Amino acid sequence: MTRTLAVILCLSALALRAADSAAMPAGRWRTFDDKTGKPKAIIVLYEEKGLLFGRVETLVDPDVVKICDKCSDQRKGQAVTGMVVVRRMKKDGDEYTGGDILDPKNGSVYRCKMRLLDQGRKLSVRGYLGLSLFGRSQTWIRDDSGQK
């Protein structure tokens, strides 16, 4: 009886931990081109000092810009692969806000907000200037293919 109870408790703890990690945006995300809908890149979101950042792990689309020539900050002329494109996002209720996102194609930096959808399998990412009304949204899909 005690052994059965211990197994049940361990399995419950593992299930809760898996549910918690699915409800966190940290991990690998597949992005898509707004016009073609084709996969564009894999972005890895990670936490650092309580803030969320994202770097480009892989460029999937061979036609996507590989060097950020149009960037106007320290990222100008840098390779997009390995570049931090999401910076300083913080949890605010059920959203992540307060940071920014870079579009390497045009070099523009936008304010950003994110929200997990579909039990953590999708991420709504909105980049905007000024008011959130003036921006565009993308849906990123969690990519577990690189996990072991």
Description:
- The chain is mostly beta strands.
- The chain has a single domain (2-142), classed as Beta Barrel (Lipocalin), CATH 2.40.128.520.
- 14% of the residues lie in helices and 46% in strands.
- The chain has one helix and eight strands.
- The protein has one helix spanning 2-22, and strands at 27-32, 39-48, 51-59, 84-92, 95-103, 108-117, 122-128, 135-142.
- The radius of gyration is 18 Å and the shape is globular.
- Mean pLDDT is 86; it is low at 4-22.
Q: In angstroms, what separates the terminal alpha carbons?
A: 34 Å
H and E order: HEEEEEEEE
How much helical structure, as a percent, in the residues? 10-25%
The low-confidence parts are 4-22
> Mean pLDDT, rounded to whole units?
86
Strand fraction: over 45%
Tell me the Rg in angstroms. 18 Å
Strand order of the largest sheet: 1-2-3-4-5-6-7-8
List keywords for this structure.
single chain, 148 residues, mainly beta, Lipocalin, eight-stranded antiparallel barrel
